[in-house]
């Protein structure tokens, strides 16, 4: 089934200036779903899932958070935090005129989705949380991203040089996920250093106490054999949140190379969130 796709943008005013954020809409209607990308990745990584959900009648929006993809990429680490990114999602909903949405994402996007649920619970119809980065991932995250931050800060030619090498490669001539990898390499050293610095020195996710208060229905997806996103974190999160369901992926690559099962589970979950009146869900928890 073909669905309409439209690119849009909106602007945020802050003490540091005016920032432009870009998004893509898939489909139409009032059953909103917002999908967020992983760290340093573009929103296009969520395109296959967005198209699959839109084909089921959902109105899906993928957003490039500040510092990512085709949105602005300031070099100031003070503008990057989980809370700031969550505020950008709320600003997107305001811009679209969407009172509520199912909000979800992968890795960084998963944690931002949790922050939105804490910041503005009245805007959350449901959560789709893939590969959250919580207690069991701290050490692996430091090992993975600290060298990147230092390289971007003190050896900027490494990051900028990779951009020069990969940017000219036509994305239409390579497989989809190779293109996403190339897009992820399209970074500027100053903004990469700022993004990672903001993550390291801000809070990574809502506290366990806050997560236990999230009442929205949630679909939590964990991957085996992934040290940066251990399945133990996803399982722990599903236990903490009172209305969460845990789904174990068959492998770290299942949703990328054989997505049918997880796409179907996500579509069914999101449709159920929209078919179930919000008042009835709250009454059912009492």
TrEMBL record:
Keyword Hydrolase belongs to the record: yes
Transmembrane domains' residue ranges: none
Lineage of the organism: Bacteria, Bacillati, Actinomycetota, Actinomycetes, Propionibacteriales
Keywords annotated in UniProt: Hydrolase
Keyword Membrane: no
Species whose genome carries this gene: Nocardioides luti
Domain AB hydrolase-1: 32-138
Pfam families, alphabetized: Abhydrolase_1 (PF00561)
Protein name: Alpha/beta fold hydrolase
Xref: PANTHER family: MONOACYLGLYCEROL LIPASE, MONOACYLGLYCEROL LIPASE ABHD6
Superkingdom of source: Bacteria
Coiled coil segments of this chain: none
GO molecular function: monoacylglycerol lipase activity
Gene Ontology CC: membrane
Gene3D superfamilies, sorted: alpha/beta hydrolase
A biological process from GO: acylglycerol catabolic process
InterPro entries per UniProt: AB_hydrolase_1, AB_hydrolase_fold, AB_hydrolase_sf
